[in-house]
Amino acid sequence: MAVAVSPLAPKTYPDLPPVDGVRFATGAAGIRYQGRTDVLLALFDKGTEVAGVFTRSKCPSAPVDWCKTKLEGGKARALVVNSGNANAFTGKLGAEAVKTTASLAAKALDVPQSEIFLASTGVIGEPLDASKFEGVLEPLRDAASPDGALDAARAIMTTDTYPKVAVARTEIDGVPIVITGIAKGAGMIAPDMATMLSFIFTDAPIDAPVLQSLLTRGVQGSFNSITVDSDTSTSDTLLLFATGAAAHRGAPRIKTKGDRKLKPFRKALDALLLDLAHQVVKDGEGARKFVEIVVEGAASPGAARKIARSIADSPLVKTAIAGEDANWGRIVMAVGKAGEKAERDKLAIWFGDIRVAYKGMRDPAYDEAAVSRLMQADKIDIRVDLGLGEGSARLWTCDLTKAYVEINGDYRS
Amino acid sequence: MAVAVSPLAPKTYPDLPPVDGVRFATGAAGIRYQGRTDVLLALFDKGTEVAGVFTRSKCPSAPVDWCKTKLEGGKARALVVNSGNANAFTGKLGAEAVKTTASLAAKALDVPQSEIFLASTGVIGEPLDASKFEGVLEPLRDAASPDGALDAARAIMTTDTYPKVAVARTEIDGVPIVITGIAKGAGMIAPDMATMLSFIFTDAPIDAPVLQSLLTRGVQGSFNSITVDSDTSTSDTLLLFATGAAAHRGAPRIKTKGDRKLKPFRKALDALLLDLAHQVVKDGEGARKFVEIVVEGAASPGAARKIARSIADSPLVKTAIAGEDANWGRIVMAVGKAGEKAERDKLAIWFGDIRVAYKGMRDPAYDEAAVSRLMQADKIDIRVDLGLGEGSARLWTCDLTKAYVEINGDYRS
């Protein structure tokens, strides 16, 4: 089935500058199909620090288990990613495949196994034949180049209709720093996090525990605030690699998370995470609309988040948006089913700037034609004020179209 | 948009016998469209006891608020149901519309307002013009007949493709008792409960508190164990009316819920509730497959229920079933995202009799062709054994098809 590029795809890709200390190469290992690019190798200079966040699924993939353990060391020399097979729910065979891959990589790259990170995406439950990596990594090692980030983003795509890349430039103590990131993910996207792989690279000299704190905080308002279909993958992996190469140009090493010199970096990282997270939603399977949901006036931030999630995940809300139907009654339904405090007679709802419901009933000034025009845009803004307290939350989602069902339904019959 | 009758619809309807003490009439009040049957009136003889369960939405409709209050008296003389407008999220106007309707009904039927029950289904957020009931109820009162149950079921349909009716015959202390029930609901169906109206009628002489206990227990394994799209309506209403007329034929009055003479009645009621609940799922918007999900071996019954719900609500599981794709990896995903205890290496999954996954990986004997044949049936059975404890749960759902998106997407653009 040919799938057209999402109409919400970015019109242009940014030039991805090299990150000092990072090199990429991609190749074909024949994981699922012959002759298709399905392996990404990223090499890091000695001294690279690493942080990561992972799926909260109770059935994580074998590579997720592997990365969690290796993260304890805080050091990274290589990242090996394959598409075509998620190596998830593959039991002992999966754990063995991961060990084999790491062992082959350690030998080919001459780095310790404990500093090799692995990620896999693709079919769940099929054993991954790790022997296919044999002889594949050596030529990749030799071909690795600082300029391969866009190719890297392409190599990890599955049902994605476009590669997801982002770049941010910042400084630490006046020394220029670059951050680049790639991501994949289109379906099975929900907090926390998504069928989502994302890898961020920077030359900033930041110790692993500080990196971890930046990342854990940064994903809250970005990757953990998006949902495509409420389904959570077994494989979600987000890794942040910091080579520290900017130290050669005078950047001081950051060793504590309270260091004031971190401020611009944190801001730049947060913006880059949000950029990538939005790109994932905009490539949501079958998506035609990018939807921002803001909930305000809730009893608590947690209540606001739960209500926003209830709206964002509601099939009835999402199909209405697909149909460009300003069906705010379904928003009321979704608020009501969230199980959090809500008083019908205090609730107000906006589509864009237009208030459609107020004090428990239709806004007297509500003009359906005006809202209908607004619903034709690519970006839909929904705002709900519960009128109860100070809790607020912001989430992003997409519409639910027939194409989603088509992409995921297979329709073999 | 013309919608064909669900392929899962029952091939025949049972003959609905009269229930002594109950009469029905249907008519057109022009609530949303002119000339369409949109009002159901049910009349009950004096002494009829009533019990009810309702949506747990935090934004319930005005008729739900009304019924909850009136239920305290435990007595019913009339039920007025309209389709075309849900009178939900209509604030003060909604409460006034309910009062106006009850007042018109009390006058037309010469019964106390406190013994009149109301339900509405249709569009949310539009004010209901209750003056449309004026002059409508008197002719219905005069026309009411004991034989109108099937017409009653038809009158309350919205996006339903077939009327839902059920009948059960039982006895209390050797005296024959009849129970009949009608239901509507097709989308916005999820525990607890559904965009669902259901009314059950019996001639059994059972006191209201006992009826309430029977109903509250009975919905757990039936109406509260179904989901179409995880969306919960603001209007869900299930009322059980017991006229007590069988007392004239010698049935003893049941005054305590522990009364042993209740046993056959409870069993018959539970079966009827399950029958109606299944009919609702089988008419799920766009449904082509009826799916039973059994979760066993969970750490607790609550955990089993949450995992079953996670599977039943997963768009990726539901689209796979629509595509007749035995994609058990998505079942693993749904188990993993439920947030309950699950050990990958103890998990086993069956489609029908075929075990597809065992001990953390694909069953060695798994034959995809055999499972694919099985997926072509109308009824799909999924069983998951977590291998952890004794907790089990059983839920019913349907597949997610393009027709669901079409029905709910409106596609006005």
From TrEMBL, chains A, B:
Q: Which key words are in the record?
A: Acyltransferase, Amino-acid biosynthesis, Arginine biosynthesis, Autocatalytic cleavage, Cytoplasm, Multifunctional enzyme, Transferase
Q: What Pfam family is a match, any one? A: ArgJ
CDD domains from the UniProt entry: OAT
Which Gene Ontology cellular component terms are annotated? Answer: cytoplasm
Residues of the active site are: 195 (nucleophile)
Q: Alphabetically, which GO biological process terms does the record hold?
A: L-arginine biosynthetic process; ornithine biosynthetic process
Reactions the enzyme catalyzes: N(2)-acetyl-L-ornithine + L-glutamate = N-acetyl-L-glutamate + L-ornithine; L-glutamate + acetyl-CoA = N-acetyl-L-glutamate + CoA + H(+)
Positions bearing the site annotation: Involved in the stabilization of negative charge on the oxyanion by the formation of the oxyanion hole: 121-122
**Subcellular compartments:** Cytoplasm
Identify the metabolic or biological route this protein is part of: Amino-acid biosynthesis; L-arginine biosynthesis; L-ornithine and N-acetyl-L-glutamate from L-glutamate and N(2)-acetyl-L-ornithine (cyclic): step 1/1; Amino-acid biosynthesis; L-arginine biosynthesis; N(2)-acetyl-L-ornithine from L-glutamate: step 1/4
- Supply the EC number(s): 2.3.1.35, 2.3.1.1
What does the subunit comment say? Heterotetramer of two alpha and two beta chains.
**Chain's role:** Catalyzes two activities which are involved in the cyclic version of arginine biosynthesis: the synthesis of N-acetylglutamate from glutamate and acetyl-CoA as the acetyl donor, and of ornithine by transacetylation between N(2)-acetylornithine and glutamate.
Q: What is this protein called?
A: Arginine biosynthesis bifunctional protein ArgJ
